[in-house]
Amino acid sequence: MTIAYNGFSYAGFQRQACTNDNKDTPAKSDGWRKRPHPQSNKSKSKTPITVQQQIENALEQWSNLSIVTLRVRGAGRTDKGVHAAGQVVAFDIPLSLLQVPPSSEGETNTNEEVLSTNALPLLQEAYQMLRNSNGTNEDSQRTYRDPSMPNFLDLWQIRRAISTRLPSDIVIKSVWLRTEVPFEARQGIACKTYIYKIRFRSLRYITTKDGTKTVHPICNAGPHLLRRIHDQNNVWLCPWPLDESFLHSACEAFVGVHNFYNFVHREEHKKRAMCSNGSKADSIEKDYTTDLFSFDVHLVKDGGEGDMNRSTSTPPIYNATFTLKAKGFHRQMVRNLTGYVVDISRGLQLLDNIPSLLKETSDSDQETASRINAAPSCGLCLEHVLYERYHFMKATSMVK
Question: Does the reported pTM lie above 0.90?
């Protein structure tokens, strides 16, 4: 599937170890689906809710299959508060459940899972359509799937059935079916695209009566004047004024093959160090070298202040959209890169420091670590995932 979600209410995409997990319990019983009484203490869950957990719950209710059978997995492990517009999610439906009809004589195996009456006809129809259209809805020989082709299947009935069981902040954009080589959402990725949105006041100076230059007072007004009625916790309202002239050059300095060790979350450093078998220097160079294909920024003047936009003396407000593309990103890498670019534009860091930060790998260098400030998660969005083999630019639900 291709899904989009607002990550504000979730502790990331991936199911966490402390979340409610009935992995070995098939979803056959109706009792577990009953909503707890509002006054019950059990209804007040203290465990974090993730996007994967919501999808698994919806698929369980629709298909009547267990989490183990469905094996839900995503292309990216977005962190807490991070959004997605093109997250790729795959899940399994055993082909045997579609081909073998229920026994009319009551000879059923109680240990074998059975598809629900809601899911079975839709999946059987989709599978039959797939077989009638040359056995697949994607052509691995083509570099792009033409939507006008007869075997381009929009399984909107399945998409609707799952969507009705999801909260409003998770949207299914498309559902696809495959029966060939198993599809793994995290494998064979050619490019991931992340975007980060910031709204900020441009840094401007005024001349006082005594002839000295000082920052315009409105530049220090904080983020409150940057709020807009249609904001959905998907943009960072930068509390500092920025010099937009530094943004493009700072972004370009990171493009290419570099060692991004200093721009990765320190928890990932610890995990890699524990799993490393070789020398520390070799493992760092191998694990954190990334080819950043592009790092662009697009600036648009904001019109949210009405008549104030016509004033030439008032510093303008900009909406900045950063676009980063690479085959893969390390934990918190996009937020750290964006945060450092912001620090350069606010005068906290120097553009000339970037080359040295892309070489230093000392985990004990506290000064280096203190230079990197991560941008908040609210402005980050997983925009698109492109695969080396599957170029239909959609997500895939798989039948094995």
Answer: no
